[in-house]
Amino acid sequence: MKNIPGFCHDLLAWFSLNRRPLPWRRDYQPYHVWIAEIMGQQTQMERVVDYFNRWLALFPDITVLASASELQVLKAWEGLGYYSRARNILRAAALIVERHHGKIPSEYEELLALPGIGPYTAAAIMSIAYNRPFPVLDANVQRVLARLMSLDLPLRSAGAQRLLRAEVARLMVEENPRMFNQAMMELGALVCKPRHPSCGQCPVREHCRALADDVVSERPLPQPRREKIRITMACVILCHRGRIYIQKRLADDVWGGLWEFPGGRLKSGESPARAARRELLEETSFRAGALRPFRTVSHCYTRYHVVLHAFFSRLDQDSAVPVLTAATSYRWINLDGLDAFPFPAGHRQLVRLLKKNRKNG
Q1: Beta-bridge mates of residue 233
Q2: Alpha-carbon distances of 220 from 40, 41, 216, rounded to whole Å
């Protein structure tokens, strides 16, 4: 790009008129920027705003957050996925209170030393919270740059990443990096979209090589699609004296720290009912009575498509104390009490269906 000052002027002028009124943009508090950036990873902005506002109502500052329990934090995060991010936020908050007097560090290396903060998030905090000249390369910015440069390389390749970093550093407006980075991200989110970009409304279309070469639809180069891996599981909603059994997953497991109905994956040739009964026995030592089908739900995460078969049963023994082999703790909870616990997506669907089933009689 030859006319960098003209590009930056056009970009920032557009942003001043079109930026969305996101809550963390009111005063750019570092705590707010940090939480919004973590929440915004692989999540639509409309959902981020809802979660962000609920989060601040629960944890208005880092001191309150640092004193919260993991259960409270995971419940507030429920539905965003990637729960290790929520646990890292809690760990980082404790370190910020302990080592930085409750203030988000304003030095890049100190940010990198905190759990869950990598180069991208550290750069975003430095730029957006502290207005320092650190380029931010999220997916939106990478797509914008790939079209501006007409980059003929897969975005994930090392060569493409080097070129993108060099180009955004060259374009960076050092006197106002906060607005520059946000304008680039906003342009990708609102105008230079993955599909059907609004090139006619683009404020920097005169600077776009892909538009000039009529290859916008081919930039960035399409990534090969990865097939979904199908997983079939079964679980037991175990009832005893008006209460339902739930257990907390192991910390280092998938969805570690979340709560679930006991169950697991089907073995080859195994029916869902047989798998549910086997998994209950292996994980708790409980023997189920007769199984009654409840619902089958499905959800997707990363590369996986999970189908979960759920069965009702009653405890078929005197002792209600499990022998845990796949969990760290357990509870017998009434139906309304389930709302206080964070569940993975499939089990959360089952909780909603249980409550709906009760309302319908």
Answers
A1: 265, 308
A2: 22, 20, 8
Q: Which tokens go with 141?
A: 């910015």
Average pLDDT over residues 170-191: 94
pLDDT in tens, 345-360: 999 999 999 999 876 6
Q: What topology does CATH give the domain 229-359?
A: Nucleoside Triphosphate Pyrophosphohydrolase (3.90.79)
Give the active site residue among 37, 78, 260, 283: 37
**Which 3 state secondary structure label does DSSP give 187?**
helix
Q: Which two tokens stand for residue 42?
A: 């692989």
Per-residue pLDDT tens digits for 311-358: 999 998 889 999 999 999 999 999 999 999 999 999 999 999 999 987
Side-chain half-sphere CA neighbours of 257 within 13 A = 20
At the topology level of CATH, where does 4-218 sit? Endonuclease III; domain 1 (1.10.340)
How many whole angstroms separate alpha carbon 15 and alpha carbon 175? 16
Query: End-to-end CA distance of the chain, in Å?
Result: 66
**Is residue 100 classed exposed, middle or buried when 0-12, 13-18 and 19+ CB atoms within 10 A define those classes?**
middle
Q: Which two structure tokens, joined as six digits, stand for 339?
A: 């709302």
CA distance 124 to 130: 9
Helix (H, G, I), strand (E, B) or coil at 117: coil
- 6-55 residue pLDDT tens: 999 999 999 999 999 999 999 999 999 999 999 998 888 989 999 999 99
How far apart are alpha carbons 352 and 332 in whole angstroms?
18
Q: What is the DSSP letter of 341?
A: S
User: Is the distance from CB of 263 to CB of 280 less than 8 angstroms?
Assistant: yes
pLDDT tens digits along 222-231: 877 778 899 9
Question: Within a 10 A sphere around the Cβ of 23, how many other Cβ atoms?
Answer: 13
Q: Name the phi and psi angles at 304, rounded to 5.
A: -115, 145
Residue 87: both structure tokens together: 């646990």
Known catalytic membership, residue 37: yes
Backbone angles phi, psi at 329, to 5 degrees: -160, 170
The domains of the chain are located at: 4-218, 229-359
